[in-house]
Amino acid sequence: MSTAAILGGGVIGGGWAARFLLMGWDVVVYDPAPDAKTKLDEVMKNAKRSLPALSEHALPTMGTLAWADDIASAVKEASWIQESVPERLNIKHDVLKVVQENCSKDAIIGSSTSGFKPSELQEHSVNPSQIIVAHPFNPVYLLPLAELVGNAETIKKAQIVLQGLGMHGLHVRKEIDAHIADRFLEAVWREGLWLIKDGIATTQEIDDAIRFGFGLRWAQMGLFETYRIAGGEAGMAHFIEQFGPALEWPWTKLMDVPELTDDLINKIATQSDEQSGMHSIRELERIRDDNLVGMMRALKARGWGAGKLLNEHDQKTQPEFKAQNDELINSINRAIPIDWTDYNGHMNESRYGQVFSDAADSVLRMIGVDQAYIDSGSSYFTVDIHIKFMEETLAHENIKVYSQVLLGEGKKLRLFHQMMSEDNRMLATGEQMLLHVDLNTRKSSVPEGEVLKQLNNLAQLHADLPHPGA
Amino acid sequence: MSTAAILGGGVIGGGWAARFLLMGWDVVVYDPAPDAKTKLDEVMKNAKRSLPALSEHALPTMGTLAWADDIASAVKEASWIQESVPERLNIKHDVLKVVQENCSKDAIIGSSTSGFKPSELQEHSVNPSQIIVAHPFNPVYLLPLAELVGNAETIKKAQIVLQGLGMHGLHVRKEIDAHIADRFLEAVWREGLWLIKDGIATTQEIDDAIRFGFGLRWAQMGLFETYRIAGGEAGMAHFIEQFGPALEWPWTKLMDVPELTDDLINKIATQSDEQSGMHSIRELERIRDDNLVGMMRALKARGWGAGKLLNEHDQKTQPEFKAQNDELINSINRAIPIDWTDYNGHMNESRYGQVFSDAADSVLRMIGVDQAYIDSGSSYFTVDIHIKFMEETLAHENIKVYSQVLLGEGKKLRLFHQMMSEDNRMLATGEQMLLHVDLNTRKSSVPEGEVLKQLNNLAQLHADLPHPGA
What we know:
homodimer, 470 residues, alpha/beta, Rossmann fold, N-(1-d-carboxylethyl)-l-norvaline Dehydrogenase, domain 2, Thiol Ester Dehydrase, Chain A, eight-stranded mixed β-sheet, six-stranded antiparallel β-sheet, 16 helices, globular
């Protein structure tokens, strides 16, 4: 079990803590603020309802959370130390000094700073290469990006740790103020302030201009891949030559910084209240998280962008099912994602079918029907399923499925699935008939030797189990 | 039937044409380019495989496409004229002059210009209020945003037309170079060029910094709502005061424009090849469109952002089902969206269940079980379904479902659904048992008087139909 030390437990530090904990790390938090525990508890609640939904199987057993009275004891056992204290260099220097006096020489010290360069953080350090920038994005427990700046060797190690947390550590190869993403955010922020100050648009209008247009594009391809498409077959160079002159036009006021007068601040706050004031911050957080989970799951189905990262993580952490004995197969362990619920507030009936379809996939992988087998031209198709719905299941609940082979003979496979709640209430059953299919002719066929052998073997093992009945 | 005239049929004009056509408008295109028909054909192919998937029911019958030999004949019958000719003001003036000499006084003339203001377009015009900016975003057939600038009365009319096309016409109330969204895009583009020129990041690294972080956020909330959350309960004004000082830091090079030397252009083009060169532009377009459809459908399930627009459009265009006679109910007409397919390349088995669940919803709406009824505390839950899978169904195919009431008595409702291909092959059947439920007690109950009456009436009408058998 690895241990992470979280120094500063606000929205960012708390997000780190939640991600480490839910991914199975032990976490020690140091935060002297009187409301630190309440704040972390709020972030944990959000994280627990959303992060598990990004995976198609259960997350590892959650780590334990401990609170430290001082930095020294917080970092002692830690292999990752994440600093998220206020953005003032002298505070960061003081914290990092105590950290390095007490932590392991092999520990990675990541700073959540959005503005400081590693060379600035490392001033006066005895072991500077240990300190890197690891700049995450809110909500840290959902968004995969962390910008990593600093020593290349340390970053290589950090990338492996982050991958284990389901994150993408982007190596920013040259240190620069604000790294990469925040440079864009600042540019957009400045422009937004001007548009509001000049009365061109309200916060709502600006947000609509983003989320109904380029925001959707950027969630899956970035700036350059999007423009590559716009350039068409003529290519990227052609696109730039066409678009280039516009850069000289007086379209932007970004060369100038609007003064943040009370008037301007008040204007923005009022517009924001009109736009979003009907929702509490807590509600907005949950709306945002549900949206992000839904979209990231959509990208997952496409195997693209953030969804590709999620698939890779799933694949690495996928549990092995072994048919070693005559027990029912625990084919599914997972949380119910928000996008599986309907207007009745419970899991839509069709998703029971999806769970049983996934359960069948688990059984199929056990007998050697994996991606390679499918790529070689064979698969199983379901020809018939009978589902009985016994109890409702709500979003964020954990479920498990136990599967039984009722028949495994030639091209036929008959499965019986029992879907259970975490406390072992029976939620639904599914009896499913599958046929082995030649994907070229799309006709049924007998599986290849090794698959057939494993199928017969599994059917044999299950033959003595009690029949589940009708 | 309304007619739209499309002047200039490139990616943008073609995207407009595709959206109008698929939403049931007749379209006349004028584009003198020799490859105009090939280009439009390519956009149409993309649009046909993606736009229908955004709706939960079939789109209207497609309009007819005609090609005009000149602008005069193109615009004669049109109630909407969309100009997407090259971004040179003298060309636009020439085109608009001929348009206004030949079109109806009531027609709306929209310009796709990303840079010119309406006052510039309207110079020398005899009927200036007719000309507005209607600036869309690529791909026009999927993204809902169009920025509208110009006469407020014309824009009100335009917004209604765009709503009918499933779009959101954002009224930009003060004219300004580049409207709203492109100001942000230009700011980000400039910053991106600097990062590449200075060797800080590659196109791939920049795109990852966007799509793994803030890009995901902006697809559902924009800049200000996102920061409102970051500000927390302390409020937006507090957030700005905190974030404000960073605006004065030297984080951005945006005050300066990088020179587009051959070296820089070549650097970007090479990096872009390394990043995306393994895909053709056509492939990238389809990857992008599938991603967008998947994410927009995810937002639809959440009723938020672009998904909220889609739901509103669905609701407005939802077909009425009437139980006037003793025929089977055509409960579903729709295309199979890409996110319903699995690794076998066909519709996942669970989505058959979803189609039948949706078919049941259609039948339920017929007997008065609508959102208001559900809000009043009652609904139907499925307790049992038996699905037989007969043929595969692939993404983008059109399907229809015919539903029959086998039993409608007290709290019980038994339905039989037949899912058919466009050419009437039987794809699957589903026999489904539903119970009426009191949503407060979550226990079965008898429906209220009017629903029960309509249920019995429908059951009566279907009693004489042949029983579909086992």
